[in-house]
Amino acid sequence: MLRHTMLFAGYEFGVLRRNLAWPIIGIMQPVLYLLLFAPLLTSIAPNGTLAEALVMFTPAALVMIALFGSMFAGFGMINETRNGVLERLAVSQAWRPAIILGRVVKDMAMLVLQSVLVLGVAALMGLRISLAAMGLMLLLMAVTGLFSANLSYGLALAVRDENGMSQIVQFFLLPLMLLSGLMLPMSVAPEWMQTVAKFNPLYYAVEAGRAMFVDDFTHSTVPIAFGLFLVLGVLTLTWSVRSLRKLAG
Amino acid sequence: MIIEAHDLRKTFVAKRGRGKTEEVEAVRGIDLAVDEGEIFACLGPNGAGKTTTVRMLATFTAPTSGTARVAGFDVVKEAAMVRERIGYVGQNGGVDENAPGLESLVLAGRIAGLSRKQALARAEELFATFSLTEIANRPVKTLSGGQKRRFSLAIGLVNRPPLVFLDEPTTGLDPQNRANLWDEIRTLRDQGTSVLLTTHYLDEADALCDRLVIVDHGKIVAEGTPEKLKKEVSGDVVTLRLDDLEGARKLLAAQPYITETQTEGESLRAYLDDGEHNLPALLRALEAEDLAIRSISLDRATLDDVFLKHTGRSLRDAA
Protein backbone atom coordinates (compact mmCIF):
# COMPACT_ATOMS: atom_id res chain seq x y z
CA MET A 1 0.00 0.00 0.00
CA LEU A 2 2.63 2.46 1.09
CA ARG A 3 4.98 1.08 -1.56
CA HIS A 4 2.48 1.78 -4.32
CA THR A 5 1.76 5.26 -2.97
CA MET A 6 5.46 6.07 -2.98
CA LEU A 7 5.88 4.59 -6.48
CA PHE A 8 3.16 6.84 -7.86
CA ALA A 9 4.54 9.82 -5.94
CA GLY A 10 8.03 9.11 -7.29
CA TYR A 11 6.67 8.98 -10.83
CA GLU A 12 4.87 12.30 -10.31
CA PHE A 13 8.05 13.89 -8.98
CA GLY A 14 9.75 12.79 -12.17
CA VAL A 15 7.06 14.49 -14.25
CA LEU A 16 7.45 17.62 -12.13
CA ARG A 17 11.23 17.64 -12.45
CA ARG A 18 10.92 17.65 -16.23
CA ASN A 19 8.48 20.59 -16.12
CA LEU A 20 9.93 22.79 -13.40
CA ALA A 21 8.72 25.99 -15.07
CA TRP A 22 5.09 25.49 -13.99
CA PRO A 23 5.53 25.27 -10.21
CA ILE A 24 7.92 28.22 -10.39
CA ILE A 25 5.28 30.32 -12.13
CA GLY A 26 2.78 29.03 -9.57
CA ILE A 27 4.78 30.43 -6.72
CA MET A 28 5.01 33.92 -8.26
CA GLN A 29 1.48 34.81 -7.22
CA PRO A 30 1.94 34.59 -3.44
CA VAL A 31 5.37 36.22 -3.72
CA LEU A 32 3.82 39.14 -5.61
CA TYR A 33 1.11 39.38 -2.97
CA LEU A 34 3.80 39.53 -0.29
CA LEU A 35 5.72 42.22 -2.17
CA LEU A 36 2.81 44.34 -3.34
CA PHE A 37 0.00 43.70 -0.88
CA ALA A 38 1.62 43.18 2.54
CA PRO A 39 2.96 46.79 2.60
CA LEU A 40 -0.63 48.05 2.26
CA LEU A 41 -1.48 46.31 5.52
CA THR A 42 1.08 48.30 7.54
CA SER A 43 -1.54 50.99 7.98
CA ILE A 44 -3.87 48.66 9.92
CA ALA A 45 -1.05 47.03 11.94
CA PRO A 46 -0.99 48.17 15.59
CA ASN A 47 2.46 49.81 15.37
CA GLY A 48 2.39 50.32 11.62
CA THR A 49 5.46 48.22 10.83
CA LEU A 50 5.98 45.95 7.86
CA ALA A 51 7.09 43.10 10.17
CA GLU A 52 3.68 43.17 11.85
CA ALA A 53 1.91 43.28 8.51
CA LEU A 54 3.94 40.25 7.41
CA VAL A 55 2.92 38.27 10.52
CA MET A 56 -0.67 39.01 9.51
CA PHE A 57 -0.34 38.37 5.83
CA THR A 58 2.27 35.59 5.35
CA PRO A 59 0.00 32.80 6.70
CA ALA A 60 -2.65 34.08 4.29
CA ALA A 61 -0.22 34.02 1.37
CA LEU A 62 0.61 30.41 2.28
CA VAL A 63 -3.03 29.34 2.42
CA MET A 64 -3.41 31.03 -0.94
CA ILE A 65 -0.86 28.70 -2.56
CA ALA A 66 -2.62 25.77 -0.92
CA LEU A 67 -5.86 26.94 -2.51
CA PHE A 68 -4.69 28.05 -5.92
CA GLY A 69 -2.02 25.41 -6.34
CA SER A 70 -3.82 22.34 -5.10
CA MET A 71 -7.38 23.12 -6.14
CA PHE A 72 -6.27 22.97 -9.74
CA ALA A 73 -4.21 19.79 -9.25
CA GLY A 74 -7.09 17.68 -10.54
CA PHE A 75 -7.06 19.21 -13.99
CA GLY A 76 -4.27 16.91 -15.10
CA MET A 77 -6.35 13.94 -14.08
CA ILE A 78 -9.32 14.85 -16.26
CA ASN A 79 -7.26 14.08 -19.32
CA GLU A 80 -6.23 10.77 -17.78
CA THR A 81 -9.87 9.73 -17.53
CA ARG A 82 -9.95 9.95 -21.32
CA ASN A 83 -6.52 8.84 -22.50
CA GLY A 84 -6.86 5.46 -20.84
CA VAL A 85 -4.18 5.90 -18.17
CA LEU A 86 -6.63 5.56 -15.27
CA GLU A 87 -8.40 2.73 -17.06
CA ARG A 88 -5.10 0.85 -17.34
CA LEU A 89 -4.15 1.54 -13.73
CA ALA A 90 -7.59 0.44 -12.52
CA VAL A 91 -7.05 -3.07 -13.91
CA SER A 92 -3.40 -3.23 -12.85
CA GLN A 93 -2.23 -4.60 -9.52
CA ALA A 94 -2.04 -1.09 -8.09
CA TRP A 95 -3.70 -0.45 -4.74
CA ARG A 96 -6.37 1.97 -5.92
CA PRO A 97 -6.12 4.69 -3.27
CA ALA A 98 -2.41 4.88 -4.12
CA ILE A 99 -3.29 6.15 -7.60
CA ILE A 100 -4.76 9.27 -5.94
CA LEU A 101 -2.58 9.34 -2.83
CA GLY A 102 0.65 9.23 -4.82
CA ARG A 103 -0.35 12.44 -6.55
CA VAL A 104 -1.52 13.99 -3.29
CA VAL A 105 1.85 13.22 -1.69
CA LYS A 106 3.51 15.04 -4.59
CA ASP A 107 1.13 18.01 -4.21
CA MET A 108 1.74 18.15 -0.46
CA ALA A 109 5.50 18.04 -0.90
CA MET A 110 5.31 20.75 -3.57
CA LEU A 111 3.18 22.88 -1.28
CA VAL A 112 5.64 22.56 1.59
CA LEU A 113 8.53 23.40 -0.71
CA GLN A 114 6.72 26.45 -2.11
CA SER A 115 5.85 27.48 1.45
CA VAL A 116 9.51 27.35 2.43
CA LEU A 117 10.30 29.66 -0.47
CA VAL A 118 7.50 32.08 0.42
CA LEU A 119 8.65 32.07 4.05
CA GLY A 120 12.16 32.81 2.79
CA VAL A 121 10.95 35.84 0.84
CA ALA A 122 8.94 37.00 3.85
CA ALA A 123 12.02 36.64 6.08
CA LEU A 124 14.01 38.75 3.65
CA MET A 125 11.31 41.38 3.89
CA GLY A 126 11.59 41.41 7.68
CA LEU A 127 9.38 38.61 9.01
CA ARG A 128 10.74 37.14 12.24
CA ILE A 129 9.11 34.00 13.63
CA SER A 130 10.29 31.13 15.81
CA LEU A 131 11.49 27.83 14.33
CA ALA A 132 8.63 26.03 16.09
CA ALA A 133 6.13 28.35 14.42
CA MET A 134 7.73 27.74 11.06
CA GLY A 135 7.74 23.96 11.46
CA LEU A 136 4.13 23.83 12.59
CA MET A 137 3.09 26.17 9.81
CA LEU A 138 4.67 23.85 7.22
CA LEU A 139 2.87 20.91 8.80
CA LEU A 140 -0.39 22.84 8.63
CA MET A 141 0.30 23.53 4.95
CA ALA A 142 0.78 19.80 4.38
CA VAL A 143 -2.60 18.90 5.88
CA THR A 144 -4.28 21.80 4.04
CA GLY A 145 -2.80 20.38 0.84
CA LEU A 146 -4.04 16.90 1.78
CA PHE A 147 -7.56 18.29 1.82
CA SER A 148 -7.52 20.61 -1.16
CA ALA A 149 -5.63 18.23 -3.47
CA ASN A 150 -7.94 15.32 -2.60
CA LEU A 151 -10.92 17.61 -3.12
CA SER A 152 -9.55 18.62 -6.50
CA TYR A 153 -8.96 15.02 -7.64
CA GLY A 154 -12.39 14.02 -6.39
CA LEU A 155 -13.94 16.91 -8.29
CA ALA A 156 -11.97 16.07 -11.43
CA LEU A 157 -13.09 12.45 -11.36
CA ALA A 158 -16.69 13.37 -10.65
CA VAL A 159 -16.98 16.17 -13.23
CA ARG A 160 -14.55 14.83 -15.88
CA ASP A 161 -14.78 18.01 -17.92
CA GLU A 162 -12.23 20.82 -17.92
CA ASN A 163 -14.76 23.60 -18.53
CA GLY A 164 -17.14 22.39 -15.87
CA MET A 165 -14.33 21.93 -13.39
CA SER A 166 -12.84 25.37 -13.89
CA GLN A 167 -16.28 26.97 -13.43
CA ILE A 168 -16.89 25.03 -10.23
CA VAL A 169 -13.45 25.81 -8.80
CA GLN A 170 -13.80 29.52 -9.63
CA PHE A 171 -17.28 29.57 -8.15
CA PHE A 172 -16.04 28.30 -4.78
CA LEU A 173 -12.63 29.91 -4.74
CA LEU A 174 -13.60 33.56 -4.41
CA PRO A 175 -16.06 33.28 -1.49
CA LEU A 176 -13.75 30.78 0.24
CA MET A 177 -10.90 33.24 -0.11
CA LEU A 178 -12.81 36.34 1.00
CA LEU A 179 -14.48 34.53 3.91
CA SER A 180 -11.24 33.15 5.29
CA GLY A 181 -9.87 36.53 6.22
CA LEU A 182 -7.12 35.87 3.76
CA MET A 183 -6.80 39.42 2.44
CA LEU A 184 -7.86 41.27 5.58
CA PRO A 185 -8.39 39.70 9.02
CA MET A 186 -11.99 38.74 9.70
CA SER A 187 -11.83 40.85 12.86
CA VAL A 188 -12.41 43.92 10.70
CA ALA A 189 -15.48 42.27 9.09
CA PRO A 190 -19.12 42.89 10.11
CA GLU A 191 -20.54 40.34 12.51
CA TRP A 192 -22.57 38.34 9.96
CA MET A 193 -19.44 37.77 7.88
CA GLN A 194 -17.56 36.63 10.95
CA THR A 195 -20.35 34.13 11.63
CA VAL A 196 -20.31 32.80 8.07
CA ALA A 197 -16.51 32.55 8.16
CA LYS A 198 -16.78 30.08 11.04
CA PHE A 199 -18.15 27.56 8.50
CA ASN A 200 -15.18 28.01 6.19
CA PRO A 201 -12.40 25.54 6.96
CA LEU A 202 -9.83 27.88 5.45
CA TYR A 203 -10.66 30.51 8.03
CA TYR A 204 -9.21 28.20 10.67
CA ALA A 205 -6.07 27.62 8.61
CA VAL A 206 -5.43 31.35 8.26
CA GLU A 207 -6.26 32.14 11.90
CA ALA A 208 -4.22 29.20 13.21
CA GLY A 209 -1.30 30.39 11.06
CA ARG A 210 -1.53 33.90 12.47
CA ALA A 211 -1.72 32.57 16.04
CA MET A 212 1.28 30.30 15.51
CA PHE A 213 3.29 33.14 14.00
CA VAL A 214 3.09 34.96 17.34
CA ASP A 215 3.92 31.68 19.18
CA ASP A 216 0.36 31.29 20.48
CA PHE A 217 0.29 27.52 19.94
CA THR A 218 -2.62 26.89 22.29
CA HIS A 219 -4.99 29.22 20.44
CA SER A 220 -8.30 27.39 19.87
CA THR A 221 -8.02 27.58 16.10
CA VAL A 222 -4.75 25.57 16.05
CA PRO A 223 -6.11 22.14 17.04
CA ILE A 224 -9.31 22.89 15.11
CA ALA A 225 -7.35 23.59 11.93
CA PHE A 226 -5.19 20.46 12.17
CA GLY A 227 -8.11 18.21 13.12
CA LEU A 228 -10.44 19.67 10.53
CA PHE A 229 -8.07 19.26 7.61
CA LEU A 230 -7.06 15.74 8.60
CA VAL A 231 -10.70 14.66 8.76
CA LEU A 232 -11.61 16.51 5.55
CA GLY A 233 -8.52 15.04 3.88
CA VAL A 234 -9.63 11.49 4.67
CA LEU A 235 -13.21 12.22 3.58
CA THR A 236 -12.19 13.75 0.27
CA LEU A 237 -9.73 10.91 -0.38
CA THR A 238 -12.52 8.39 0.16
CA TRP A 239 -14.70 10.36 -2.21
CA SER A 240 -12.09 10.52 -4.96
CA VAL A 241 -11.28 6.80 -4.69
CA ARG A 242 -14.98 6.06 -4.99
CA SER A 243 -15.21 8.31 -8.04
CA LEU A 244 -12.31 6.37 -9.51
CA ARG A 245 -14.33 3.18 -9.10
CA LYS A 246 -17.32 4.81 -10.80
CA LEU A 247 -15.20 5.69 -13.80
CA ALA A 248 -16.13 2.38 -15.36
CA GLY A 249 -19.86 2.94 -14.93
CA MET B 1 -9.83 -22.41 -21.04
CA ILE B 2 -8.29 -19.03 -20.30
CA ILE B 3 -11.61 -17.18 -20.61
CA GLU B 4 -15.01 -18.64 -19.81
CA ALA B 5 -17.95 -16.29 -19.79
CA HIS B 6 -21.59 -17.17 -19.29
CA ASP B 7 -24.45 -14.89 -20.19
CA LEU B 8 -22.57 -11.66 -19.50
CA ARG B 9 -24.80 -8.62 -19.47
CA LYS B 10 -24.17 -4.95 -18.85
CA THR B 11 -26.77 -2.24 -18.57
CA PHE B 12 -25.67 1.37 -18.24
CA VAL B 13 -27.82 4.16 -16.93
CA ALA B 14 -27.25 7.01 -19.35
CA LYS B 15 -28.17 10.61 -18.55
CA ARG B 16 -30.53 12.16 -21.05
CA GLY B 17 -30.52 15.69 -19.68
CA ARG B 18 -32.98 17.40 -17.33
CA GLY B 19 -32.68 14.60 -14.79
CA LYS B 20 -34.01 11.99 -17.19
CA THR B 21 -32.19 8.73 -17.43
CA GLU B 22 -32.33 5.91 -19.86
CA GLU B 23 -31.12 2.35 -19.56
CA VAL B 24 -28.77 1.25 -22.28
CA GLU B 25 -28.17 -2.45 -22.69
CA ALA B 26 -24.62 -2.49 -23.99
CA VAL B 27 -24.10 -6.24 -23.65
CA ARG B 28 -27.08 -8.56 -23.80
CA GLY B 29 -25.97 -12.07 -22.93
CA ILE B 30 -22.54 -13.05 -24.18
CA ASP B 31 -20.96 -16.50 -23.81
CA LEU B 32 -17.30 -16.90 -24.57
CA ALA B 33 -14.81 -19.73 -24.39
CA VAL B 34 -11.24 -18.83 -25.29
CA ASP B 35 -8.52 -21.47 -25.31
CA GLU B 36 -5.03 -20.96 -24.06
CA GLY B 37 -2.59 -19.86 -26.72
CA GLU B 38 -5.07 -18.63 -29.29
CA ILE B 39 -5.77 -15.26 -30.81
CA PHE B 40 -9.47 -14.72 -30.34
CA ALA B 41 -11.27 -11.77 -31.92
CA CYS B 42 -14.52 -9.97 -31.15
CA LEU B 43 -15.56 -8.54 -34.49
CA GLY B 44 -18.38 -6.06 -34.72
CA PRO B 45 -19.36 -2.52 -35.62
CA ASN B 46 -18.81 0.42 -33.26
CA GLY B 47 -21.28 0.28 -30.41
CA ALA B 48 -21.75 -3.48 -30.63
CA GLY B 49 -20.60 -3.97 -27.02
CA LYS B 50 -17.08 -5.21 -27.75
CA THR B 51 -15.31 -2.74 -25.48
CA THR B 52 -17.79 -3.24 -22.66
CA THR B 53 -17.29 -7.01 -22.91
CA VAL B 54 -13.52 -6.68 -22.74
CA ARG B 55 -13.79 -4.24 -19.84
CA MET B 56 -15.90 -6.71 -17.90
CA LEU B 57 -13.43 -9.53 -18.57
CA ALA B 58 -10.51 -7.30 -17.56
CA THR B 59 -12.22 -6.41 -14.22
CA PHE B 60 -12.64 -2.73 -15.13
CA THR B 61 -16.44 -2.84 -15.25
CA ALA B 62 -18.56 -5.15 -13.13
CA PRO B 63 -21.14 -7.12 -15.13
CA THR B 64 -24.80 -6.39 -14.40
CA SER B 65 -25.36 -10.15 -14.49
CA GLY B 66 -23.65 -13.29 -15.66
CA THR B 67 -20.32 -14.76 -14.65
CA ALA B 68 -16.85 -14.92 -16.12
CA ARG B 69 -13.67 -16.69 -15.17
CA VAL B 70 -10.43 -15.32 -16.54
CA ALA B 71 -7.17 -17.26 -16.08
CA GLY B 72 -9.04 -19.46 -13.64
CA PHE B 73 -10.48 -16.73 -11.41
CA ASP B 74 -13.83 -15.05 -11.10
CA VAL B 75 -13.70 -11.50 -12.49
CA VAL B 76 -15.86 -10.08 -9.70
CA LYS B 77 -14.99 -12.10 -6.60
CA GLU B 78 -11.32 -12.66 -7.40
CA ALA B 79 -10.55 -9.52 -9.37
CA ALA B 80 -7.11 -9.10 -7.74
CA MET B 81 -6.05 -12.59 -8.89
CA VAL B 82 -7.29 -11.86 -12.40
CA ARG B 83 -5.37 -8.56 -12.51
CA GLU B 84 -2.11 -10.33 -11.72
CA ARG B 85 -2.57 -12.53 -14.76
CA ILE B 86 -3.73 -10.18 -17.49
CA GLY B 87 -2.34 -7.43 -19.63
CA TYR B 88 -4.79 -4.79 -20.77
CA VAL B 89 -4.30 -2.37 -23.62
CA GLY B 90 -7.30 -0.09 -23.91
CA GLN B 91 -8.60 1.65 -26.98
CA ASN B 92 -6.88 4.91 -26.06
CA GLY B 93 -3.53 3.38 -25.25
CA GLY B 94 -3.24 4.58 -21.68
CA VAL B 95 0.30 5.90 -21.99
CA ASP B 96 1.09 9.12 -20.15
CA GLU B 97 1.89 11.63 -22.90
CA ASN B 98 3.99 13.90 -20.71
CA ALA B 99 6.55 11.37 -19.57
CA PRO B 100 9.04 9.27 -21.52
CA GLY B 101 7.74 5.76 -22.30
CA LEU B 102 10.50 4.30 -20.15
CA GLU B 103 9.11 5.97 -17.02
CA SER B 104 5.58 4.65 -17.63
CA LEU B 105 6.90 1.17 -18.27
CA VAL B 106 9.13 1.07 -15.20
CA LEU B 107 6.25 2.32 -13.04
CA ALA B 108 3.94 -0.34 -14.46
CA GLY B 109 6.59 -3.00 -13.84
CA ARG B 110 7.18 -1.95 -10.26
CA ILE B 111 3.44 -1.88 -9.53
CA ALA B 112 3.38 -5.46 -10.80
CA GLY B 113 5.94 -6.28 -8.11
CA LEU B 114 9.29 -5.99 -9.88
CA SER B 115 12.25 -4.26 -8.26
CA ARG B 116 13.63 -1.19 -10.00
CA LYS B 117 16.46 -3.26 -11.45
CA GLN B 118 14.12 -5.99 -12.68
CA ALA B 119 11.74 -3.41 -14.14
CA LEU B 120 14.59 -1.77 -16.05
CA ALA B 121 15.71 -5.14 -17.39
CA ARG B 122 12.16 -6.00 -18.44
CA ALA B 123 11.83 -2.59 -20.10
CA GLU B 124 15.01 -3.17 -22.09
CA GLU B 125 13.71 -6.55 -23.24
CA LEU B 126 10.33 -5.16 -24.32
CA PHE B 127 11.85 -2.14 -26.04
CA ALA B 128 14.07 -4.45 -28.05
CA THR B 129 11.07 -6.58 -29.04
CA PHE B 130 9.03 -3.58 -30.16
CA SER B 131 11.94 -1.53 -31.60
CA LEU B 132 11.48 1.21 -29.05
CA THR B 133 14.96 1.36 -27.54
CA GLU B 134 15.97 4.55 -29.32
CA ILE B 135 12.84 6.48 -28.38
CA ALA B 136 12.47 5.15 -24.83
CA ASN B 137 13.53 8.46 -23.30
CA ARG B 138 11.48 10.78 -25.48
CA PRO B 139 8.22 12.22 -24.12
CA VAL B 140 5.44 10.08 -25.54
CA LYS B 141 3.59 13.12 -26.93
CA THR B 142 6.41 13.61 -29.47
CA LEU B 143 5.95 10.10 -30.93
CA SER B 144 3.91 8.87 -33.88
CA GLY B 145 0.67 6.92 -33.52
CA GLY B 146 2.37 3.63 -34.31
CA GLN B 147 5.13 4.22 -31.78
CA LYS B 148 2.61 5.14 -29.09
CA ARG B 149 0.68 1.97 -29.82
CA ARG B 150 3.83 -0.12 -29.45
CA PHE B 151 4.50 1.52 -26.08
CA SER B 152 0.95 0.68 -24.95
CA LEU B 153 1.51 -2.91 -25.95
CA ALA B 154 4.88 -3.06 -24.18
CA ILE B 155 3.32 -1.65 -20.99
CA GLY B 156 0.50 -4.20 -21.20
CA LEU B 157 3.03 -7.02 -21.34
CA VAL B 158 5.30 -5.87 -18.53
CA ASN B 159 4.06 -8.51 -16.06
CA ARG B 160 4.43 -11.35 -18.61
CA PRO B 161 0.68 -12.05 -18.53
CA PRO B 162 -0.60 -15.38 -19.88
CA LEU B 163 -3.51 -13.42 -21.38
CA VAL B 164 -3.58 -10.00 -22.96
CA PHE B 165 -6.62 -7.92 -23.94
CA LEU B 166 -6.20 -5.63 -26.92
CA ASP B 167 -9.11 -3.27 -27.52
CA GLU B 168 -9.01 -2.14 -31.16
CA PRO B 169 -5.24 -2.40 -31.32
CA THR B 170 -4.80 -1.14 -34.87
CA THR B 171 -7.45 1.57 -35.14
CA GLY B 172 -5.92 4.67 -36.67
CA LEU B 173 -2.68 3.00 -37.78
CA ASP B 174 -1.39 3.12 -41.34
CA PRO B 175 -1.21 -0.18 -43.28
CA GLN B 176 2.50 -0.68 -42.65
CA ASN B 177 2.17 -0.21 -38.90
CA ARG B 178 -0.90 -2.42 -38.85
CA ALA B 179 0.96 -5.23 -40.58
CA ASN B 180 3.86 -4.87 -38.13
CA LEU B 181 1.53 -4.97 -35.16
CA TRP B 182 -0.17 -8.09 -36.53
CA ASP B 183 3.24 -9.75 -36.69
CA GLU B 184 3.95 -8.74 -33.12
CA ILE B 185 0.61 -10.14 -31.96
CA ARG B 186 1.31 -13.41 -33.79
CA THR B 187 4.72 -13.61 -32.14
CA LEU B 188 3.03 -13.20 -28.76
CA ARG B 189 0.71 -16.08 -29.53
CA ASP B 190 3.60 -18.23 -30.71
CA GLN B 191 5.31 -17.62 -27.38
CA GLY B 192 2.21 -18.97 -25.61
CA THR B 193 0.33 -15.80 -24.72
CA SER B 194 -3.41 -15.89 -25.28
CA VAL B 195 -4.82 -12.82 -26.96
CA LEU B 196 -8.34 -11.46 -26.93
CA LEU B 197 -8.72 -8.56 -29.31
CA THR B 198 -11.60 -6.49 -30.55
CA THR B 199 -11.75 -5.05 -34.00
CA HIS B 200 -14.14 -3.62 -36.52
CA TYR B 201 -11.80 -4.50 -39.37
CA LEU B 202 -12.85 -7.60 -41.29
CA ASP B 203 -9.45 -8.19 -42.80
CA GLU B 204 -7.86 -7.98 -39.38
CA ALA B 205 -10.13 -10.62 -37.88
CA ASP B 206 -9.68 -12.74 -40.98
CA ALA B 207 -5.90 -12.51 -41.18
CA LEU B 208 -4.98 -12.49 -37.53
CA CYS B 209 -7.27 -14.55 -35.37
CA ASP B 210 -7.60 -18.27 -34.80
CA ARG B 211 -11.22 -18.02 -33.78
CA LEU B 212 -13.71 -15.18 -33.54
CA VAL B 213 -17.15 -14.16 -32.51
CA ILE B 214 -19.17 -11.65 -34.48
CA VAL B 215 -20.97 -9.29 -32.11
CA ASP B 216 -23.88 -7.04 -32.96
CA HIS B 217 -26.17 -5.09 -30.62
CA GLY B 218 -24.61 -6.72 -27.57
CA LYS B 219 -25.11 -10.29 -28.75
CA ILE B 220 -23.02 -12.90 -30.49
CA VAL B 221 -24.42 -13.57 -33.94
CA ALA B 222 -21.78 -16.05 -35.15
CA GLU B 223 -18.81 -17.93 -33.77
CA GLY B 224 -16.04 -20.07 -35.22
CA THR B 225 -12.81 -20.00 -37.16
CA PRO B 226 -12.67 -17.48 -40.02
CA GLU B 227 -12.63 -20.40 -42.48
CA LYS B 228 -15.65 -22.09 -40.93
CA LEU B 229 -17.63 -18.85 -40.87
CA LYS B 230 -16.82 -18.06 -44.47
CA LYS B 231 -17.81 -21.59 -45.44
CA GLU B 232 -21.27 -20.92 -44.01
CA VAL B 233 -21.76 -18.52 -46.85
CA SER B 234 -20.77 -19.88 -50.25
CA GLY B 235 -17.26 -19.34 -51.46
CA ASP B 236 -17.95 -16.56 -53.97
CA VAL B 237 -20.24 -13.61 -54.22
CA VAL B 238 -21.53 -11.78 -57.27
CA THR B 239 -22.46 -8.17 -56.58
CA LEU B 240 -24.85 -6.68 -59.13
CA ARG B 241 -26.30 -3.27 -59.69
CA LEU B 242 -29.39 -3.18 -61.84
CA ASP B 243 -32.72 -1.40 -62.10
CA ASP B 244 -35.11 -4.20 -61.24
CA LEU B 245 -33.47 -5.39 -58.03
CA GLU B 246 -36.36 -7.50 -56.76
CA GLY B 247 -37.03 -9.16 -60.16
CA ALA B 248 -33.39 -10.09 -60.47
CA ARG B 249 -33.29 -11.42 -56.93
CA LYS B 250 -36.22 -13.75 -57.58
CA LEU B 251 -34.73 -14.93 -60.81
CA LEU B 252 -31.30 -15.63 -59.32
CA ALA B 253 -32.71 -17.30 -56.21
CA ALA B 254 -34.34 -19.82 -58.51
CA GLN B 255 -31.03 -20.74 -60.19
CA PRO B 256 -29.63 -24.10 -58.99
CA TYR B 257 -26.05 -22.82 -58.55
CA ILE B 258 -27.07 -19.84 -56.35
CA THR B 259 -27.14 -20.69 -52.65
CA GLU B 260 -28.38 -17.42 -51.25
CA THR B 261 -29.29 -13.87 -52.27
CA GLN B 262 -29.23 -10.65 -50.28
CA THR B 263 -30.24 -7.16 -51.31
CA GLU B 264 -28.25 -4.45 -49.65
CA GLY B 265 -29.06 -0.87 -50.53
CA GLU B 266 -28.98 -0.57 -54.28
CA SER B 267 -27.03 -3.72 -54.90
CA LEU B 268 -27.84 -7.39 -55.03
CA ARG B 269 -25.48 -9.99 -53.68
CA ALA B 270 -25.76 -13.56 -54.94
CA TYR B 271 -23.72 -16.28 -53.22
CA LEU B 272 -22.50 -19.24 -55.20
CA ASP B 273 -19.75 -21.84 -55.31
CA ASP B 274 -17.26 -21.90 -58.13
CA GLY B 275 -18.10 -18.40 -59.30
CA GLU B 276 -15.75 -18.36 -62.29
CA HIS B 277 -17.62 -21.23 -63.97
CA ASN B 278 -21.11 -20.22 -63.00
CA LEU B 279 -20.85 -16.55 -63.91
CA PRO B 280 -21.59 -17.08 -67.65
CA ALA B 281 -24.77 -19.00 -66.77
CA LEU B 282 -25.82 -16.21 -64.41
CA LEU B 283 -25.29 -13.61 -67.13
CA ARG B 284 -27.29 -15.64 -69.65
CA ALA B 285 -30.18 -16.04 -67.19
CA LEU B 286 -30.34 -12.29 -66.60
CA GLU B 287 -30.14 -11.58 -70.31
CA ALA B 288 -32.93 -14.03 -71.11
CA GLU B 289 -35.20 -12.04 -68.80
CA ASP B 290 -34.03 -8.71 -70.30
CA LEU B 291 -32.63 -7.45 -67.00
CA ALA B 292 -30.11 -4.75 -67.81
CA ILE B 293 -27.00 -4.91 -65.64
CA ARG B 294 -25.37 -1.63 -64.68
CA SER B 295 -22.38 -3.19 -63.00
CA ILE B 296 -21.24 -6.59 -61.86
CA SER B 297 -18.35 -7.94 -59.84
CA LEU B 298 -17.23 -11.35 -58.65
CA ASP B 299 -15.40 -11.65 -55.33
CA ARG B 300 -14.45 -14.21 -52.73
CA ALA B 301 -16.87 -14.10 -49.80
CA THR B 302 -15.45 -12.33 -46.74
CA LEU B 303 -16.45 -12.07 -43.11
CA ASP B 304 -18.52 -9.09 -44.18
CA ASP B 305 -20.75 -11.53 -46.03
CA VAL B 306 -21.05 -13.56 -42.84
CA PHE B 307 -22.02 -10.40 -40.99
CA LEU B 308 -24.52 -9.51 -43.71
CA LYS B 309 -26.04 -12.96 -43.55
CA HIS B 310 -26.60 -12.77 -39.81
CA THR B 311 -27.62 -9.16 -39.39
CA GLY B 312 -28.97 -8.12 -42.78
CA ARG B 313 -26.49 -5.24 -42.80
CA SER B 314 -23.00 -4.84 -44.09
CA LEU B 315 -20.36 -4.23 -41.43
CA ARG B 316 -19.07 -1.37 -43.55
CA ASP B 317 -22.43 0.38 -43.23
CA ALA B 318 -23.21 -0.55 -39.65
CA ALA B 319 -22.62 2.40 -37.38
TrEMBL record, chain A:
A single cellular component GO annotation: ATP-binding cassette (ABC) transporter complex
Transmembrane domains' residue ranges: 20-41, 53-78, 111-131, 137-159, 171-189, 222-241
Similarity-based family: Belongs to the ABC-2 integral membrane protein family.
UniProt-recorded name of the protein: Transport permease protein
Organism listed in the record: Planomonospora venezuelensis
Highest taxon, organism lineage: Bacteria
Biological classification of the source: Bacteria, Bacillati, Actinomycetota, Actinomycetes, Streptosporangiales
Compartment(s) where it occurs, according to its Swiss-Prot or TrEMBL record: Cell membrane; Membrane
Entry keyword annotation includes Chaperone: no
Membrane topology: Multi-pass membrane protein
Any one GO MF annotation of this record: ABC-type transporter activity
Automatic annotation (TrEMBL), chain B:
Membrane topology note: Peripheral membrane protein
Keywords: Antibiotic resistance, ATP-binding, Cell membrane, Membrane, Nucleotide-binding, Translocase, Transport
Top-level taxon of the source organism: Bacteria
Keyword Transport recorded: yes
Any one GO BP annotation for this protein: doxorubicin transport
Principal place of residence: membrane
InterPro entries cross-referenced by the UniProt entry: AAA+_ATPase (IPR003593), ABC_transporter-like_ATP-bd (IPR003439), ABC_transporter-like_CS (IPR017871), ABC_transporter_ATP-binding (IPR050763), DrrA (IPR005894), DrrA1/2-like_C (IPR025302), P-loop_NTPase (IPR027417)
Bilayer-crossing regions: none
Compartment(s) where it occurs, according to its Swiss-Prot or TrEMBL record: Cell membrane
ABC transporter domain ranges (all copies): 3-242
Gene Ontology molecular functions: ATP binding; ATP hydrolysis activity
GO CC entries: plasma membrane
Keyword Translocase: yes
Similarity-based family: Belongs to the ABC transporter superfamily. Drug exporter-1 (DrugE1) (TC 3.A.1.105) family.
Entry-linked NCBIfam families: drrA
UniProt protein name: ABC-2 type transport system ATP-binding protein
Species name: Planomonospora venezuelensis
